[in-house]
Fold this protein.
Amino acid sequence: MSIAAKANTIWQYANPKKFLATSERVLPFFWATAAICLVVGLVWGFFFTPDDFRQGSTVKIIYLHVPSALMAINCWLMMLVTSLVWLVRRHHVSALAARAAAPIGVVMTLIALVTGAIWGQPMWGTWWAWDPRLTSFLILFLFYLGYIALWEAIEDPDTAADLTSVLCLVGSVFAILSRYAVNFWNQGLHQGASVMRAGAVTGTDTTEKVSNVFFYPLFLCIIGFVLLFIALVLYRTGTEIRARRIRALLARERAGA
Amino acid sequence: MIALLFRDLKLAMRAGGGFGLGLVFFLIVTTLVPFAVGPQSDLLASIAPGVLWLGALLACLLSLDRLLALDWEDGTLDLLATAPLPLEAVVSVKALAHWITTGLPLVLAAPVFGVLLNLPGPGFFWLVVSLAVGTPALSVVGTFGAALTVGLKRGGLLLSLLVLPLYVPTLIFGAEVARRGAQGMETGTPLLMLGGITLATIALLPFASAAVLRVNLR
């Protein structure tokens, strides 16, 4: 591959300098659009949509619950991809991005669990039920905690990146396995997929789905959460790169002195 | 491989605490449960399969941090890594030795503890079957966790945190087999799933364990 061709691939961002320069340029855009989407989506959702005829105003938790749950899963997917990239191509930025994403994933999982509990209390009459979806989210939360704990426990950064990447791969398989095991184990209260299902968006699907009145602000909130997630990951990865640099500089100084 | 297996077994036998400790732990857990939930025999009967599975799982977990750590400390692992035997085979043998010293005694002793918890009659057979099928998976997954944390100074607690979520599918299907068996229901589906998980972990996880062990030995 020639250098000119290489400059146009995604791999050029494996260079930390290039990554930092580009991410600093695009970050304000992501922050701004995320803020706009979230503010518009949440205000629209909270104040300008009707109450559900059965659920009343509690239905509005959906604007936080669904996007955060979506991002909690997608965050793990992103960590899986970056872990694979690290294992295959040994790009440090990739490993650092996985590390940077994990705490965001934990927070998203926690938001989904807590808003779910707040929503479940008036609707199902209970804060918590051992429903398959709730349970698999709790398990996902545990996976995140273990992953972060392993990162924190290992001193050598390359060893830590290797071990956590393998853990992420193995953990993904077991997370999916747990999802189906849990489904088998208990049938639950939580409704099925009703937002992103094919047909629900185009309106051809006439079965139970989220009404368009709720769907538009919800879609805006989802986009806002995605943008917020991207911005946070870029920002935190930048921080990790700088922290790594500082450590390298300190080590060099100590070696020189 | 066989020499390594016998070496591990001998070490576990002679060093003390290998064979017995897991069993005693299992016994203590089973003894404590009635204190915690009350001695009503029908209540105990209904929770017995789950409690016995949980006890077996915790007893397995207890011995994991010694699984590779001793060989790591005295340098045996370095020798094994440079030996002609592939590291995948080494971790498989380690897992097998762990199962023989921990899993197998638990399987054999489980019916006795079942009596303590008033396990219904048909449950004994299925409890033993489910534990026999499921505990190898616990050992193999545990070996992976032990390989991940072998280089850490205080790996024990972290090991539990990493391994326990990985035990979820095995526990669900294993306890389901025992529970259905105890209630006289059909056990085919969960038993097949449990066997599938065990076989898949035996087939695939040693590669991951060996990979992380190589990283740790670097």
In short: The CA atoms of residues 148 and 215 of chain B lie 9 Å apart. DSSP finds ten helices and no strands in chain B. Chain B has one domain: 2-217.
